[in-house]
Amino acid sequence: MGDGRLLESLAQRDVNSLYVGIELDKEQCRLAQSRITLSNVVILCGSFEDILLTFPDGSVDRFIAVLPDPRFIDEKKENSWKPFYKAVYSKLKFGGTLELVTEMTDELLQPVSDEAYMKWATELKASFTSIGFDLMDQREGAPAQYSSRCLDQFRGDPERVRMATLELAKR
Ligand SMILES: C[S@@+](CC[C@H](N)C(=O)[O-])C[C@H]1O[C@@H](n2cnc3c(N)ncnc32)[C@H](O)[C@@H]1O
Q1: Which of 78-104 are b and which e, b meaning 16 or more Cβ less than 10 Å from the residue's Cβ?
Q2: Which residue minimizes the CA distance to atom 5 of ligand 1?
Q3: Cα–Cα dist 87/58, whole Å
Q4: Which residues contact residue 149 at a Cβ distance below 8 angstroms, ignoring those fewer than 6 apart?
Q5: Among the listed residues 38, 43, 45, 44, the one whose alpha carbon sits nearest the alpha carbon of residue 16
Q6: Is this model's pTM higher than 0.90 or not?
Q7: For residue 128, what pLDDT is reported?
Q8: What per-residue confidence (pLDDT) applies to 170?
């Protein structure tokens, strides 16, 4: 959740749902805890992979992963992160969803070509459907209504940092 800004705005607009923010970095956690006073928000400081295991299988309506650390999405590290999203899948209810917003950059930090973007987006889709997710929607960019520290930073350099949003469901 980073500093929890997006978490707070989502929870404010949906008071009947419980939002759980997860963040490894203690300082980001402290910032979020000191600012967010909503009764429908719980903040858990720790690693997502450990905390995920504490949720019962089939218990979660929706995961929102906005710009996960490259360790959890980099195409070259797929073998190490795929088991993690398999665990995400198992924690979802049937009909539950994972919204993933992620980004790609050129290794030399040149503008990302349409061809490279399309190749990456196709591989991303293939990775998640091979886990079992149904792809409901995939589009370029991040949801316009979302704002976070990293999203705002990446939006400032749209040719070098190209984002994609995937809406994935457990059927
Ligand atoms: C690129 S930032 C995005 C943060 C936020 N979603 C945003 O858009 O501003 C990635 C975040 O993931 C956190 N992180 C990295 N590894 C993690 C892990 N294993 N468990 C939980 N959070 C982790 C980092 O501390 C960092 O705040």
Answers
A1: eeebeebbeebbbbbeeebbbbbbbbb
A2: 2
A3: 10
A4: 2, 3, 5
A5: 38
A6: yes
A7: 98
A8: 98
DSSP letters for 20-87? EEEES-HHHHHHHHHH---TTEEEEES-HHHHHTTSPTT-EEEEEEES--GGGT-GGGHHHHHHHHHH
Q: How far is ligand 1, taken at its centre, from the CA of residue 68, in Å?
A: 6
Q: Which atom of ligand 1 is nearest to the CA of 65?
A: 6
> How far is ligand 1, taken at its centre, from the CA of residue 69, in Å?
6
Nearest to 59 by CA among 89, 93, 20, 17: 93
Confidence band of 116 (pLDDT split at 50, 70, 90): very high
Average pLDDT over residues 117-126: 97
> What residues flank ligand 1, with Cβ below 6 Å?
1-2, 22-25, 28, 47-49, 66-67, 69, 148-151
Instruction: Please give the distance, rounded to the nearest whole angstrom, from the Cα atom of residue 28 to the centre of ligand 1.
Output: 9
